Amino acid sequence: MAKKGRVFSGIRPTGRAHLGNYLGAIKNYVALQDNYDCVYCIVDIHALTTVEDTLNLKQNTHEMTLDLLAAGIRPEETILFVQSHVPQVTELHTILSMVTPLGKLTDLPTFKDMVRQHPNNVNYGLVGYPVLMTADIVLYKSDLVPVGVDQAPHLEFARETVRSFNHRYQTKVLIEPQMKSAEVPKVLGIDGKEKMSKSLDNHIELAATPEETRQRVMQMVTDPQRIKRSDPGNPDVCNVFTLHKVFTPKEDVEMINVECRKAGIGCVDCKKRFAENLNIALEPFRAKRAELAAKPDLVAATLNDGARRARAIAEKTMEEVRAAVQLP
Ligand code: SF4
Q: Best mutation site among 265, 269, 276 for ligand 1, i.e. most ligand atoms within 8 A of its Cβ?
């Protein structure tokens, strides 16, 4: 079946993926492969903007690759590669930075957030982050970028940058990417308050053992108003219930929804059921991951092949870009 266009997305090499990464991005990456040509990039250069100690960058990239492949990325059709393996992206970044007003970058809310989060590391790369992101997208002539509503300003920035470039150099070389709205669920951590994240240590890793998973699940915060076992609960405000809806068979979800409200089921039992269902759902992923982990050469070869295919597209784009800019 003919594919509908090219999708691009980048994911940070944060090491082993957690449920938030999976439900927020990876699951959608896998599904998009059915209808689109997909280009997925592990953005190690982006990581340098906030990571000062790069000691684990290589290992973290490897772990993320294992997770992506085990989750169902099909490298024989999808281009999966590491950002720094395609150096053309940094060349395009530099060229695009010439058509980007500095004030526009420092005005972006995401930049202000980053400054708040990393006050001691406000580097030049952090300011130019959206330009590098734009280079990532347009280098591969991507038609679509799956983004959640909160990332829409970034994509709009990329579109404006493309328009500025094409206008400045009177060309149509770069394609304005369209937003492919993705319903990105906000997955809360085991604290039930903050978004699931490694830095907050409130995450559940996909590759954790069943016992580790069970222990994390049993720590999950439930309906904060439910103090005693005999108190009726409210599944609508309970993070465990939100995740039950993803991993638990429908009839059981319905039963929990009813029983929780009349204290017919306790939170301990409810969490035990969730841990069991989560472990069942993750079993094939974990088996595939273990198989891949035993073949590091194969994983490296997969990334090399992805980079080779990505470079071929990137170099063609750069030839057009250099000609448009009239670089001698
Ligand atoms: Fe949440 Fe389940 Fe407890 Fe209800 S019984 S509050 S859904 S953990």
A: 265
Q: Is 181 left (phi over 0), alpha (psi -120 to 50) or beta?
A: beta
| Paired residues of 39 in beta bridges | 8, 79
Q: Ligand 1: which residue has its CA nearest to atom 4?
A: 260
Question: Mind listing the pLDDT tens digit for each residue in 109-166?
Answer: 888 888 888 888 888 888 999 999 999 999 999 999 998 777 788 899 999 999 999 9
For each of the domains in the chain, give its residue range(s) and CATH number, in order of start: 6-187+296-325 (3.40.50.620), 210-290 (1.10.240.10)
Determine whether 144 is exposed, middle or buried from the number of CB atoms within 10 Å of its CB (0-12, 13-18, 19+). buried
Cα(205) to centroid(ligand 1), Å: 22
Name which of 98, 88, 19 is nearest 307 in CA terms: 88
Helices (H), 143-265: 152-168, 210-218, 239-247, 250-261
What is the pTM for the complete model shown?
Answer: 0.93
d(CA 212, CA 6): 38
- Which single residue is written with the structure tokens 């970058």? 105
Contact 9, 146 (CB under 8 A): yes
Residues with CB under 6 A from ligand 1: 222-223, 226, 233, 235, 238, 240-241, 256, 260, 265, 267, 270-271
Q: In whole angstroms, give the CA distance from residue 1 to residue 24.
A: 27
CA of 253 to the centre of ligand 1 (A): 11
217, 226, 236, best to mutate for ligand 1 pocket (most atoms within 8 Å of CB): 226
235 and 260 Cβ atoms separated by less than 8 Å: yes
What is the Cβ-side half-sphere exposure of residue 281, based on CA atoms within 13 angstroms?
18
